[in-house]
Amino acid sequence: MPKAYLVAVPKVTDKDMFAKEYASKVADTLKPFDGKFLVRTPNKLVLEGDEPTLTVVMEFPNKEKALGWYNSEAHQNIVTHRRAATDPKSTIIICEESDSY
To answer: How far apart are CA 88 and CA 94, in angstroms?
Structure first.
């Protein structure tokens, strides 16, 4: 099975709520799904498109684990805070490793 990646480029609108109620808690929700952060930073160089507040890339063993994490009770218990603290047009994508276009 190919590895899966969750890529998030949110525009944070309430930095304090995002940090306190989501960002500080999300890492613990990844553990049961063997997920890990590869990138989690506000430091970026935007070459095209709208500028997000930060960029996040998470790695999972496969798409099922990524979806399992996203839909898990632990994540859903805090995701409402992320949604309240970010622009609703923020992008979150799950993709798999692939050699094809």
So the answer is: 17
